[in-house]
Structure formats: C-alpha cells, structure tokens
Input
Amino acid sequence: MVEVLKIEGGHKLYGDITVSGAKNAALAIIPGALLVEGACRIENVPSIRDVKLILDMLRYLGAKVELEDSSTVIIDASEIKTCKAPYEMASKMRASYYLLGALLGRFGEAEVALPGGCYFGQRPIDLHEKGFRLLGANVRQAKGQIIAKAKTLRGASIFLDKISVGATINIILAAVRAEGTTIIENAAKEPHIVDLANFLNSMGANIRGAGTETIRVKGVERLGGGTYTIIPDQIEAGTFMLMAAATGGDVCVKNVIPKHMDSLSSKLIESGVEITECDDFIRVRRNGAIRPVKVTTLPYPGFPTDLQPQMVAFLSCCDGTSIVTENVWENRFQYIGELVRLNANITIEGSSARINGVKHLEGAPVRATDLRAGAAMVIAGLVAQGITEIHNPINIDRGYEDLEKKLTAIGAKIERVIQ
Ligand code: UD1
Output
C-alpha cells in the first residue's frame, strides 16, 4: 500500500491562504535553543516533518521539549545528556548539521553523523568545518561522524569562499558564546539568517549585521530564556503565489513579508501576473497568457533556488520559451523528467532548463523526487487536465504544513489516498 496525493487539475484557485512559520528558520532556531540555559518559548513553528525530526533530536540529546499548541514549542536545554547525534537521526535531514555548531558553541564538543536531506548533487560542508577550525576547534570525520572539539573557542575573522547559508548559520551558532568577536565575511543574507540572529539576540547574544555580507558576533558568557516568534516561510509563500498564478486564479497569500518575495514578485509581474502588495499579504491574479521569462537562481536577495522547480512548473505553460538557470546547486533538475510525464516540453542545456511552453499539461502518475520538486508536481497537477497522482508525498510533508487542507479551502481538488 502506498500513499498518493491525487489532484484533479483545471480548477482556478480563489480566496485567502495563510503561510506558516519558516521551515529553514525553525530548523536553525531550534538547534539554537541548545545554546540557551533556560526555557525558550518559540512561536509560529511550522508543523512539518522536518521540524518534528529536529525536535526529536533535541529530545534525544536530553533537552526538555514541550508543545504548548500545534505551533508553539517550549525548549529547555539547561541540561543535556549527550553531545552525540547518531546516524539514524542525523541522516534524515540536512539541518541536523546545525547541532554541530550549537553543541560545539555550548559544550565545546559535538559528534554528529553526516547530514542527509534532498540530493542536489554534492553538498560539501568544508566551509562549516573551516569556520569551526578558525574558531579553534579540532574537526575530523570518522565512521560517518563529524567530530568537533575545542578547549576554548575564540572569535576569529572568517571569509566564506562561497556564499553558504548553512555555513553562515553554523558559524554564528558556534561563535555566540566564544571568547571575543567573530567576523563572518561574504556571509549569506537569507531572511532566516536574520531570524536566527534576532532569536539569539533576544536570548542575550550580541550579533550585528545579519542580513548583510558582514556579520559580527561578539561572544557572550550566557544566554537566558525568552519568547520568540518565527518569521513566515518565504518559500511556502512563493509556492502559493506560483500556484495562484499558474491556475489563473485570484488569491491573497497572507502572513508574508512582501520584501522577502521581491525577486519572485518581479518575475511574476514580468510574466504577466498582477501582484498587489500590502503590509502582510500579497494578492496574486492572472487573466492573460503567461509570458516567457529568464530566471537565474542566486543567493538572497536573488531568485531562490528553493523556488526553482515550482517556477519551472509554472512556466511549463508559458506562451513561448523560458530559460531557467540554476546557479546554486550542481544538480537540481532531476525532477524535469517527472514534468515531462505531464506533457511539459523541457530540455536541459548545461545548468539551464529550456522550457518550451505547451498549451496544456496532462495528468499522469509522477513522483515527488524531493521537497520542492514535490511542490512543483503539485503546481503542475493543479493546472494539468485530468488526474495527477503524486507518489512519495512524504517528501512534500517535510516542508509544507496541511497542504491539502490549505489548498482545498481555496478551490483545489486534492486529496491523499492510500493505493
Ligand atoms: C540551505 C537550505 C536549502 C537551500 C540552500 C540555498 C536549509 C536546511 N537548507 O541549504 O533548502 O537550497 O540553503 O539557498 O536551510 N557549499 C560548499 N561548501 C560548504 C557549504 C556549501 O561548497 O561547506 C556550496 C554548496 O555546494 C552549494 C552552495 O554552497 O553549491 C550553497 O549551499 P548552502 O547555502 O550552504 O546550502 P545549505 O545551507 O546546505
């Protein structure tokens, strides 16, 4: 028996849809709670599979984790039993590597299995290791574990050879309680890096410059507890905007920070979609044809790679030829074959996808090869004629809370069935 997401395509989406808390912020902030002695009450936590996994990892390490309600979690890591995260847990997701920075920063030691997560080609962690070493840690890999140890962590100047979200976050985590000041140059600027810094600062850290290319972390002795609210999810918001635009509907995407959506909004406008921004929602409408566009993924504030598959799905019915270039990951087009099953006409040329718009997509069985590829299949299924069955929806559950419920409320015909 297998679980399948079944979508009857061709229904335009109308109404309001609300975005949950940011997955990638939660996945950094929850490990960040390990640096805090005292209770952290974290609000707007998305109820998704990856968050449940990271909370389980904290429980395993010995932290007290309580759910106050479905989106509020209280973590007290005053006492921890172990600094080792085993393979069975860490290999299930990418963000488990944040346990390294957090445990190293708090206890001077960490042993975490090499992370898992979506496969987009090689996902090295050399920059994380470089950062830890410059802070004074001894870092080695043995039997699939990354082992980091330091008698004392001392602030250092760290230049990231490549912009890396994960390395920026991990170095912040390790540096928060180090002696002296750490300067991270060529840092990533993603909204969830700012969110992590705001969370840590609200607990007593001294981090300046998050959201710019230079971040200064002045080490503090201790972090105490407090309450913090996670920002809305930029990628979930973008996925909903693309769903509304793809079906030719009229949807208000609520609980968003419009500024975070600038790169997507500008491309949607270029492709003929009407976008109206308000304080905390964006209205997305489309009547005419989808005009072809060129898109290149880049670190923030560029077009996010995590919206690339959804953008390609949206453009598969454009009126002409669109080019989407992937600049962050070496191999993030594996899902194209699945879109082709739905009648899309897309070819890969080096790091670009050439999308020759078709009149319509046709429903078929497809696979959610990873999280965002799965979201792309949902977009394609919503516009395809007939029934699309998405296999392996567990990949989608990793990052989207209550997806069927949220989409059904705005007119989608989507259900989860066991076959
Ligand atoms: C995070 C996101 C992921 C998103 C990506 C880029 C989480 C849990 N995941 O992944 O969804 O697609 O940001 O926005 O937040 N690199 C190195 N050496 C390193 C680290 C990275 O060469 O030590 C390279 C990678 O191969 C990649 C690029 O840097 O080409 C960007 O990776 P990075 O920003 O680190 O991605 P993640 O933090 O793993």
In short: The radius of gyration is 21 Å. The mean pLDDT is 96. Residues 234-247 form the longest helix (14 residues). The pocket of uridine-diphosphate-N-acetylglucosamine is lined by residues 24, 27, 94-95, 123-128, 162, 164-167, 188, 305-306, 328-329 (CB under 6 Å).
